[in-house]
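Revision sheet: structure tokens.
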Amino acid sequence: MTVGRVIRFDEARGYGFITPMEGGADVFVHANDLVTADRELRPGVRVSFEIFSSDRGLKAYAVQVIGEAEATARLSSPRRPVGRATPLAEAQYRREVAAVISTEDAALTPQQASSLCHRLVDVARRQGWLHR
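Predicted:
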């Protein structure tokens, strides 16, 4: 068994990545390979898992939560009810949005990705979801 932390997991798409604690390349994880419910996988959550090498790289299986999420992951959890959520720090939100944009849509140019990130930050600021 390997131990690591979830760096991202998209519940809607059913996949994400884990960083092994001992270092090395990030490991792909698919919802079908979870022992735990996928709603428990958020950035910072500590997990144990097995690794195998597929034709597309390292893949995790038998993934299960073994620890609590880091405090920063709990603060940035998108699962808090609207209106009761703790506002995110703007810099943290900007980093998370940029990470999602850069990994989700390779068809965007860097200028388009930057523009989209700025527009999303502006929306979040107007909605009161951020603090400086």
